[in-house]
Amino acid sequence: MITRVYELMIIIDSDVADGDIEAVMTRTEELVTAEGGRIASTNNWGRRKFAYEINHKVEGTYVVWEIVTESAGLPNTERQLRLADDIVRHKVFRLPEKEATRRGLLGAVVSD
Q: Structure pTM?
């Protein structure tokens, strides 16, 4: 099986109370692990202003995960994030093998 590394970023709605942000993060992590992914790292960037207004909001809480999985993408996770009212935006993208290796998420180091 081919191991793939993805980066997932979500923006949590500014209406979500600070105490409930952890619950949104936990729910997102449960979606990823249910789909066979392993969370390699979590990085909560905190509340930030948007470059432009999104759904009448001007700020949100950004969270980024590095995910290692053998599945091709995270289709169910993406579907659930699209439907979630407390998530303004999300983006999943596959890290190139060279970058994933450089970050220590895949096997041996790839040389230039």
A: 0.89
b/e string for 87-100 if b means 16 or more Cβ within 10 A? bbbbebeebebeeb
Which is nearest to 36 in space by CA: 2, 5, 68, 81? 68
Domains of the chain: 4-97 (3.30.70.60)
For residues 49 and 45, give the distance between their C-alpha atoms in angstroms, rounded to a whole number.
Answer: 12
Q: What is the pLDDT along the chain (112 residues), one digit of tens a residue?
A: 788 999 999 999 999 999 999 999 999 999 999 999 999 999 999 999 999 999 899 999 999 999 999 888 899 999 999 999 999 999 999 999 999 999 888 864 444 3
| CA 26-91-82 angle, 5° bins | 70
Per DSSP (E only), the strands in the chain are 4-13, 38-54, 57-69, 87-94
